[in-house]
Amino acid sequence: MEMGQREWELLKKIGKTRISGSKEEKETAELLKQEIEQLGVKAELMPFEVSAWTIQKAALTSKERSFEVAGYGHCADTPEEGVTAGFYYMEQMDEVAKALAKDKIVLVNGYLGLDGYKAVVESGAVGFITYSGDIRDTLEDTDLFTTRELRPQLQKLGKLPGVHLRVQDAMELVKSEPSELTLTVQQNESTAVSYNVLSEIPGKENPEEVILLTAHLDSVEFSSGVYDNGAGSVILMELLRYFKEHQPKRTLRFLFCGSEERGLLGSHAYVQQHPEALSAIRLVVNVDVAGPVLGQERIFVMAEEETVAMVQLLAKEEGFAAKIESNIYSSDAIPFADQGIPGVNFTRFGVPGTAYIHNRHDTLQFMSAASLEKTTRFVLSFLKRVDGSKVFAIPRQIPKNIREKVDEYLKKPKKEEKKEN
């Protein structure tokens, strides 16, 4: 069977919703472990704890109607009767909007990140509403996500009660101009178990030098997650197969990460659980999103500029058209870059309107075995080049511009500049 066809068959096996801490995520991790072992390579499941919650009640009502909503995990609970307050559509996060949001239940646009949530808390709002979906879809085709949560960095700013609704209902809410709303959220918080899968092919000449390959195995709610990121997992599997048959000079370690979609939890867990293993890792190669027929190869290099030049030269030699840039990429190489380990992220982005992530439209429909194989072969060429070098060609350091972007991504406090006397 050809490389791409093998990847395609495995992708069909793991193409199902497999959210963090679910039995489906565990089943996928176990399946990948079995696939590795069938190649004659040892593999292990590496469990780690993640937070969990069960929403007991979530409601949003005005005097005229009630809206179907999902409660935010780890948000503040309301009294049983809910919180009643005026309504404000907080479409901006500026000083005017913050003043008008005081003592209100506010609707915000799209994803509520750290800066947006900070503005909501600082405004004195008493609750928040987010929405998702595409207004072009019918109500029946727009999924109501039940896994939205206040992540730990947001919780530190102070907990507010929050709910999530469909974009169609968000539009109706604003159009109805309610004088007040009642928002109710009650939940039980708990923990769950997520899994990484780890395997390794020892090097025959320089086993003490490790190249770590990563891809995440989980998906978001409602999504089959074949594009994001079953594709990365099957590409790693094919690379593992190749190097099992062609032993590398250096050790190749394969890490299939769980719970990436909740903030890179699997790769963070590996870093925290195995600090002694980090010093040997010279480079991280991450694959996250691949396979669309209509798309563009993009490579994000989190290393010194000479590595960018190296990848660019290889692309020319191989006749591989790709956009290659020095930049961070929001995926599992980030926790390792935070430890000073350089990384190269391989992706194939779909053209807008032809490929979809983080919704029910992430399916095999817009993907192909040939597209998977195309990306795989270039990643393989890169690995053979790096592994085959007489001296490890990529410096184990992170340039200042990438370090600053990683710190910003991780929302680390900015270091004060030392004043010269």
Which secondary structure elements does this structure contain, and how are they paired or packed?
Elements: H1 3-14, H2 23-38, E1 43-61, E2 66-67, E3 70-71, E4 83-90, H3 95-100, E5 104-108, H4 114-123, E6 127-132, H5 152-155, E7 162-166, H6 167-176, E8 181-201, E9 206-216, H7 226-245, E10 250-257, H8 265-273, E11 281-287, E12 295-302, H9 305-318, E13 323-326, H10 334-337, E14 343-350, H11 369-388, H12 400-409
Parallel strand pairs: 4-5, 5-6, 6-7, 9-10, 9-11, 11-14, 12-13
Antiparallel strand pairs: 1-2, 1-8, 3-7, 4-8, 8-10, 12-14
Helix pairs in contact: 1-7, 1-11, 7-11
What can you see in these coordinates?
With 421 residues, the chain is an alpha/beta fold. The chain folds into 2 domains: 3-51 and 192-409, Zn peptidases (Aminopeptidase), CATH 3.40.630.10; 63-179, 3-Layer(bba) Sandwich (Glucose Oxidase, domain 1), CATH 3.50.30.30. It is built from 12 helices and 14 strands. Strands 1, 2, 3, 4, 5, 6, 7, 8, 9, 10, 11, 12, 13 and 14 form a 14-stranded mixed β-sheet that branches. Strand 9, helix 7 and strand 10 (250-257) form a beta-alpha-beta unit. Helix 1 (3-14) packs across helix 7 (226-245), helix 1 packs across helix 11 (369-388) and helix 7 packs across helix 11 (369-388). The termini are far apart. Residues 417-421 have low confidence and may be disordered.
